Amino acid sequence: MTSSLPLPSEPEAVPARLTDAERERALAVLREGAAQGRLSHDTFVRRMELALAARHQDELTALTADLRTESRWSRLVFGSVGAVSGFTVRLRRAWQSERLPKLLLPAPGAYPLRIGRDPANGLRLSHDTVSRVHAELTFQGGLWVLRDLGSTNGTAVNGRRVIGAAVVQSGDQVAFGSISFCLATS
């Protein structure tokens, strides 16, 4: 007859202590999440405290699970696509720029150049999308400044709508309503 002796129980597996590098990686993810606006200040501070007090990797994982960052490969692919996209925009702008009529900048020191449909303007543009008094071009402090004068259909410089005023230079594309020009010097 065999005696039934109790088998010694196996010791429980104790999770390894967190390394400083693991904790630092989690803190870096939290900092990045806060910088991107994905965490409020209070949430960031609370999670930092929890990360510093964490004893196991699963605690750190829980603190950063909603902030997973893109892999290096993803950043490389998306960065490349962004660069190519930006290049095509610049290429299209350059192509259009050569085909646009030139708008010669007046001599520095001249009176402001008013632009619009009104016959009293220095540059009269008879088009439905151009306001009666649309914009003004002035030379101030060594720079050309284009100011929208509350036009209905807007003024744009290089495809961006002007809110108030914008500094312009030779080679810039300007649009008054749907009428576009390329600025040039004489």
From TrEMBL:
The keyword Disulfide bond does not apply. Pfam families: DUF1707, FHA. Coiled coil: none annotated. SUPFAM superfamilies: SMAD/FHA domain. Keywords: Phosphoprotein. Residues 113-162 form the FHA domain. Transmembrane segments: none annotated. This is Peptide-binding protein. It comes from Streptomyces silvensis.
